[in-house]
Automatic annotation (TrEMBL):
This is Transcriptional regulator. Gene3D superfamilies: Winged helix-like DNA-binding domain superfamily/Winged helix DNA-binding domain. It comes from Lysinibacillus parviboronicapiens.
Length: 440
């Protein structure tokens, strides 16, 4: 039986507990908080007592985001999707007899609201919206998130007579407004969204167990001098093997080869692995090229390790370089510089067909597909795309222009992040592109 720790308010727990029967082989345990920032103090105990962490929403999740990433915790949160938003609005408009223009709303991202309004064919002269989409970009510290800011937003509109009702995604806001006597509704936690979220989390957990048992082959070669037959170096490699519960090849030739599992490699983050290599650099006064290969078989992992080691030569050798090729033949690296995935195989038929249609590099199109999928098709700027694809901004703008010309991207306006600097143009994938390659 799997165990899922629910980190959220008692109100959230009471809202979703009726859905637990949909997962008879899962035990749900509750770690309650009063305000989202308290989730940081709960995560360690919750992770130690469960297989998966379920956060009440994006705010508590992103308070714990860094710890989730560092400790590689299996975690997810209940999103505010179009279904939850539609059900909530329908309930208020129908039962409270309140027009949409008289409702103030806070939610994770305004885009989901506008999508619901557009698809429902609804219109209004203005909407009172306040979102917190910036938390997804991790460009500001979560300590800047102030619940009071959202309480005042709704309170001031209501006091001015501009609104008659509040729809909020934040339980602390809901409680505070009720205490002030302001009519409020907490966003509906739909059964469909809950079941879908938990199902995906369980699938991801099962995959992590499977992938942890995959074979990992680590090839290490010195850049400047041979360490063949250097007994001290071999002893150092043996020490690294003990850390990863691995074994080193008996061959005395370079590259030196370590056999391990993906799970063992995953337990150590890149910074820790880099520190081990740094110790070898100082001890033997040379830099190293390291290629890690992941595979479902030993042969496949060895091939991928050789490929990864080969690609380390594509980077400047003024430091040690580490690249990884995973079980899907994707190159990740250089890991000591940044993390960027590039497919070494162009076997995606939809991507190849589209690349031919619009005369674009299949590699760039594949990276675009990964970028859009990774960000759940949120609006993006040319600078963000350029950073992900490791291109100049001008090159990214050319790619965007080509996709816009072919109705695969849409210019949706300009945004002025945090009221600083020049406004930036933002874009979003069209349904045309999503149906072509994103969903396939």
């Amino acid at each position: 039986m799997k165990t899922i720790a629910v980190i959220g308010s008692l109100f959230f727990w009471d809202n979703i507990k009726e859905y637990f029967k949909e997962f008879p082989k899962v035990q749900f345990i509750h770690f309650p908080y009063t305000v989202p920032e308290e989730s940081v103090g709960l995560i360690d105990e919750a992770a130690s007592k469960s297989d998966i962490l379920l956060f009440a929403g994006s705010i508590p999740y992103y308070y714990c985001y860094k710890k989730i990433q560092v400790q590689k915790i299996q975690a997810t949160y209940i999103p505010v999707d179009e279904l939850s938003l539609s059900l909530s609005l329908l309930s208020i408009i129908h039962s409270q007899k309140i027009e949409l223009a008289n409702i103030s709303i806070d939610l994770p991202n305004k885009d989901s609201f506008y999508q619901v309004i557009t698809e429902a064919g609804l219109q209004a002269d203005h909407f009172f919206l306040k979102d917190y989409a910036w938390v997804y970009e991790q460009q500001r510290e979560m300590k800047e998130f102030q619940i009071e800011e959202y309480i005042h937003f709704h309170k001031n509109l209501y006091a001015a007579g501009k609104t008659k009702h509040v729809l909020t995604c934040l339980h602390a806001v809901f409680v505070a407004l009720n205490q002030l006597g302001i009519p409020s509704t907490y966003m509906v936690d739909s059964k469909h969204t809950f079941v879908s979220t938990i199902s995906k989390a369980i699938d991801a957990y099962k995959y992590s167990l499977l992938s942890s048992s995959q074979i990992a082959v680590v090839s290490i070669a010195s850049q400047e001098k041979s360490l063949v037959n250097n007994l001290l170096f071999l002893e150092s490699i043996e020490k690294i093997c003990k850390i990863f519960n691995a074994r080193v090849s008996q061959s005395q030739s370079e590259p030196f080869v370590i056999y391990a599992t993906r799970g063992a490699i995953r337990k150590s983050n890149i910074a820790y692995f880099q520190s081990l290599i740094g110790q070898l650099e100082k001890q033997f006064e040379t830099f190293f090229n390291i290629g890690i290969g992941i595979g479902y078989s030993l042969h496949e992992a060895e091939i991928h390790s050789s490929q990864a080691l080969f690609f380390t030569n594509k980077f400047k050798n003024q430091t040690s370089v580490l690249c990884l090729v995973d079980e899907e033949s994707r190159l990740l690296g250089s890991l000591f510089e940044n993390e960027r995935k590039i497919s070494l195989l162009n076997n995606d038929k939809q991507v190849l067909a589209l690349a031919e249609e619009i005369k674009m590099s299949a590699k760039n199109l594949k990276l675009m597909k990964q970028f859009i999928g990774m960000n759940n098709n949120r609006p993006f700027s040319a600078a963000e795309l350029a950073e992900y694809m490791n291109l100049s901004r001008r090159s990214a703008e050319r790619i965007i222009s080509r996709l816009i010309d072919n109705n695969y991207l849409l210019f949706i306006g300009e945004e002025h992040p945090y009221n600083q600097g020049r406004p930036r143009k933002v874009y979003k994938a069209t349904i045309h592109l999503i149906s072509k390659i994103i969903e396939n």
